[in-house]
Amino acid sequence: MLTTISLSLLVQALINGLLLGLVYTLISLGLSLTLGIMGVVNVAHSTLIMLGSYLALELLQRLGLDPIISAVIAVPVFFLIGVLLERLLISRVARTSQTTGLLVLFGVLVVIEGAAILRWTTDTQVLSVSYTNASLTLAGIAIAVPRLIAAAIALVLVWLLDTFLRSTLYGKAIRAMAQNRDAARISGIDTDRLSLLVFGLATATAGVGGVVLAMIFPFDPQDHYRWLAWAFLVVVIGGLGSIRNTLLAGLLIGLIETVSSVLFPFQYVYFIVYLLLVVALLVRGQGLAGSQSRAL
């Protein structure tokens, strides 16, 4: 049932939705890349996000490093993890059935989750820094500082990745591989090396996504499943492999979630978001991309 809200509350919801949407975009980028370019359904994506959150926790507790610095450190660390996963596992099952690949990646999910439980237990963790409870007030609208910083990190990474894919030689080669892998190989493009790069980048974005999530949400080793569902939702609505459409889908879902939460009772919010997924699949088939081909 609709509730009566003030203009200021609606504006507050819109701002929070945009900030949250940028975070949703970031945690979905890696899945969009692996699905759209490599055709790999990485069900272990959310555990990599979870590891990013725990990296931020460890660096804060042991070295006193701010999560902003942890986000920078996460890029090379998780890029290397992605390269190792692709070389040791993904490349070995790439030419087998998709079911085999799913089983292998599900095994990775189980191993990472189990190791995280052994290391950090199932207790819920929270990153607590000097600005955790800080907020900015503009024209009566309160903006939580952690959400603002998390959204800024997400926006920068989205811009860097989009610029890389559109403006560099490697990026153009990746786009060619996304369109037709066999044709790209015939043209002299080393698709195996590019697959390493793509999976490394996808894993790096997942790691940074985990850091920014930890800045605004509590986390534990078993909480990653909801982020996997949210990432799939963004990717399906946005379209496979499209960075800009993934951004649009993330912003759309963030706005719908926050605005719905003030217009409707809480139990209707997720229903409305998933209804959007059904509509996107029925109307456009390929999400916001609206095309049967992959486009970066």
TrEMBL record:
Q: Which GO terms describe its cellular component?
A: plasma membrane
Q: Where in the cell is it found?
A: Cell membrane
Q: Which family does it belong to?
A: Belongs to the binding-protein-dependent transport system permease family. LivHM subfamily.
Which segments cross the bilayer? Answer: 6-27, 34-56, 68-90, 102-122, 134-161, 194-217, 229-256, 268-289
The main place the protein resides is membrane
Q: How does it sit in the membrane?
A: Multi-pass membrane protein
Please state what the protein is called. Answer: ABC transporter permease
Source organism superkingdom: Bacteria
Q: Does the keyword Transmembrane apply?
A: yes
Q: Name one GO biological process term.
A: amino acid transport
Listed InterPro entries: ABC_transp_permease, BCAA_transport_permease
Keyword vocabulary terms for this entry: Amino-acid transport, Cell membrane, Membrane, Transmembrane, Transmembrane helix, Transport
MF-aspect GO terms: transmembrane transporter activity
